[in-house]
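Database export, one record per block. Field names are fixed; values are copied verbatim from the stored entry.
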Amino acid sequence: MSKAEILLSRLLSASKGVNSSERQAEARVRTNDFFDLDRKEMKAVGLMAGVDEIQSTVQGLLDAATKDGHATLIEVYEASLSVFAKWTTAQDAA
């Protein structure tokens, strides 16, 4: 299983939280873990390409969840994307 697949699996697990705050927090933690674990590897293979690819995947999942009206997955994917936005903004500033 690729690291991106592991992140997506963990986001699905986050959607099983008991309330909105727990789901969003878990999604943010899992997405931050993805960046922490992959930082060295992503620098070696082209950091932004890897980030853009998984961010696009999560955005696609958000779009599908929105179309299907799946509120808990929408929360999880939006929380994850907020971490991507924060991280890419920090990278742009560096």
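Remark 1: The longest helix spans residues 20-45.
Remark 2: The mean pLDDT is 86.
End of record.
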